[in-house]
Amino acid sequence: MSLLAGGVVLASVDDAQSFALQAAEPYVREGFQVREDYWGGDLAAGEKKAVRQQLFKGNEYWFWMGTEVNRARVSVHIYDKDGKLVEQSDSWQKGHFAAAHVVPTSTDSYFIIVAIEESPEERTHWALVYGFR
Amino acid sequence: MISVIKNSKWAGFTLALVALSVQAASAPQQINVKQYKTVEDVVVPLPGEVFSALNKLGPVNWKEYVRTEKSANFSERPRTALLLGNVIADGFIAVQAQDAPAVKEIGQRVLTLAKGIGVGASITPHAKAITEWADKRKWENVRHELDRTQNSVQQAMNELQDQKLSQLVSLGGWLRGTQILTAVVDRHFTPEGAELLHQPDLLRYFGDRLTAMPEYSVPVVQNIKQALVEVRPLIDTGSKPITPDAVKRINVITTRLDGEVVTR
Lengths: 133, 264
Fold this sequence. Notes:
Low-confidence stretches of chain A: 1-5
Helix content of chain B: 55-70%
Number of helices of chain B: 11
CATH topology of chain A: Jelly Rolls
Strand content of chain B: under 5%
Shape of chain A: globular
Order of helices and strands of chain B: HHHHHHHHHHH
Number of domains of chain B: 1
Strand content of chain A: over 45%
CATH class of chain A: Mainly Beta
Structural class of chain A: alpha+beta
Number of strands of chain A: 9
Largest sheet of chain A: 6 strands, antiparallel
Distance between the termini of chain A: 43 Å
Oligomer: heterodimer
Structural class of chain B: mainly alpha
Number of domains of chain A: 1
Radius of gyration of chain B: 22 Å
Radius of gyration of chain A: 14 Å
Low-confidence stretches of chain B: 1-25
């Protein structure tokens, strides 16, 4: 039973990944290399989590978040390790998609805060992918 | 009519400004990062990512770093996992050098290594794609296939409940990438190049993962664990820049480890 439940969870995060990749697609045409590896999980409405990621000065990055729950609203924001918001102003949110853009001013770890702002589901699966150029 | 149009334009501009303001307001300018639960999964940057940043600092003669000599084959799975990551990193170097024959050889080598530890089935289509894209000189596609290759290897290992081997693949790639990064920066030192080594959290992550693998007690794994302890103070310099001596020292360490990873 737990294996089956685990399989269902994995499938839903995979579904969320496909939506995150959908958000990323236009940027691939602009030269961003989108990583195959990604983060995912499930969160309650109003819940947030932090993804910590090494970024390199000189590169430009986008992080794209998605969920398969159409009526959910998600957000993603990027902070440096001191907790200062560092994303560019063209970061955006659109329902069950969101994206954040950063041009790191130093090579270091950054925190990408993912949130399910609203959702009709008790727990909402999400996925976060990233790309660089 | 004109005043209506003007008013409409101003109304549209105001609405857009309000929308932007709402978006900006929803993201606090300052947070306490410690209050957030952290996602446990770590996505290790591929060598291609740091090479992308390095390329922007000035021309690099990537050809001199291309390597296609066939390394030893190992029966111990942790050694093969480290070597897989190492050879995939060689693939990224060959792509930087736009060396199609090297890329194709490396693709086949990766397939052989993957078969050796029972994850070859997942790699075969990627090895084929690497060859095809290299023949067409489509380097972005080759890079993408190398990423897919590593991801497929790691997924296959995870499915076999071999998550620790998967982590060794990442580590093998990171070591080779760091060896090349330090070689390039050592040759033409710049503070910006040295800064690319500022990865203390990644180092800590690898150290923690190795500590959780006592069953993989082969000498190379132990030597890497020790070396990470040596490297940490060289790169975890706080706000101080990473020095030329530190870059040189890290290159010596990672070159020594590379030798242990690829040879019997």
